[in-house]
Amino acid sequence: MAYTNSSLVSYTKLSPNHSGQRTHSIDRITPHCVVGQLTAESICGCFTSPSVEASCNYGIGKDGKIALCVEEKNRSWCSSSRENDQRAVTIECASDLKDPYAMTTAVYSSLVKLCTDICKRNGKKKLLWLGDKNTTLNYSPKSDEMVLTVHRWFANKSCPGDWLYSRLGDLASKVTAALGGSSSGSGTSVLYRVRKSWSDAKSQKGAFNNLDNAKRCADSNAGYSVYDESGKVVYTGKQTASGGAGTPFLVKVSATDLNIRKGPGTNYAKTGKYTGKGVFTITEVKSGTGSTAGWGKLKSGAGWISLDYAKRV
Predict the structure, then answer these.
(1) Out of 3.40.50.150, 3.40.50.300, 2.30.30.40, 3.20.20.70, which CATH number does the structure's domain 248-313 have?
(2) Cα-to-chain-centroid distance, residue 230
(3) 42 pLDDT exceeds 60?
(4) Burial (CB count within 10 angstroms: exposed 0-12, middle 13-18, buried 19+), residue 188
(5) pLDDT band at 246 (very low <50, low <70, confident <90, very high)
(6) Pairing of β 28-33 and β 145-148
(7) Least confident of 43-47, 106-110, 138-142, 147-151
(8) Where are the alpha helices (DSSP H) in the chain?
(9) Nearest one of 36, 25, 56, 174 to 110, comparing CA atoms
(10) Which letter does DSSP use for residue 217 in this model?
(11) β-pairing, 259-261 with 270-274?
């Protein structure tokens, strides 16, 4: 394959930190938060020394300027996964220093444009955000599909930060629309399925074109959630029809640094404590900022956790 670099680049400072030409064609994009409101030049400067042992393909500065750090034909050292980096274009984006690592409007706008350009040059008509590590890594993209992955799936990090993570569905939709593709992947309307679990098809209460209708169905059936067509939880209903605390259920947390917050949303302060790895009891679920699957209240009374990072058991 003849690889090219983006014409959107306005600054180039190539890093020596890469593994040479890829051994897999490009079918993933992995956006990162650089943890600092840096310029494009400064992002490239982070990777000029071989001792750093890290790099990225592109950097987006706080003003939206795009830099080339590692040519697109080469595998960067960015995602803590050589397998992911072999097939992904990696992009470091300027961000705030603290959680949720917010990015400027200029950065996000350039990210949309850069992802669109990467897809277009690599013959892709759709950018997909499947939202779940196992679903994504086991998915074989079609020849015209590009898939989003995130650093936190391969290392104990919060990258790309909750600010961008909560917008990856929007990023995929905007890029796919710009490419003239269909975000549903089939040209037909998306169906939202209400089930106890994705694997328990027999428990399905219904399939809805309208997400709000699916949410209402989940709210009226204790223990049910709404799943999109990839099997990702997009909404966890109130755990009882009466809307109270509901029936407790168990979740497994694999991350060591999952924040506990004082309320159901990233707009609530962190308690300063983490769950650590383990199995925890959730007594109540509410929707809130920064989590697509909802926020779960810990039985211990310690606070609330994002169910995006917890697997129901």
Answers:
(1) 2.30.30.40
(2) 14
(3) yes
(4) exposed
(5) low
(6) parallel
(7) 138-142
(8) 40-45, 82-87, 105-121, 133-137, 161-165, 168-179, 211-219
(9) 174
(10) H
(11) antiparallel
The C-alpha angle 32, 33, 39, rounded to 5 degrees, equals 115
| The token pair that represents 121 in the structure block | 């040059």
Residue 219 makes CB contacts below 8 A (sequence gap 6+) with 237, 238, 241, 243
pLDDT tens digits, 98-124? 989 999 999 999 999 999 999 999 999
203: its two tokens? 């428990």
Q: Which residues lie below 8 Å from residue 228, measured CB to CB, with a gap of 6+?
A: 131, 190, 192, 234
Q: Which residues contact 51 (CB under 8 A, 6 or more apart)?
A: none
**Alpha-carbon span 84 to 265, nearest angstrom:** 30
Angle at 172 between CA 146 and CA 89, to 5 degrees: 45
The domain limits of the chain are 11-179, 189-241, 248-313
Structure confidence at residue 182 (pLDDT)? 55
Tell me how far apart the alpha carbons of residues 270 and 300 are, in angstroms, rounded to a whole number.
16
Q: Which of 251, 235, 254, 233 is nearest to 304 (CA)?
A: 251
Backbone torsions φ then ψ of 2, nearest 5 degrees: -90, 110
Q: State yes or no: pLDDT of 165 exceeds 80.
A: yes
Answer for the pair 64, 107: CB distance below 8 angstroms, yes or no.
Answer: yes
List all residues 6 or more positions away from 221 whose beta carbon is below 8 Å from its beta carbon.
194, 205, 237, 241
Joined together, the tokens standing for residue 20 give 């040479």
Q: What kind of architecture, by CATH, is found in domain 11-179?
A: 3-Layer(aba) Sandwich (3.40)
Would the pLDDT of 219 be above 90?
no
DSSP classification of residue 84: H
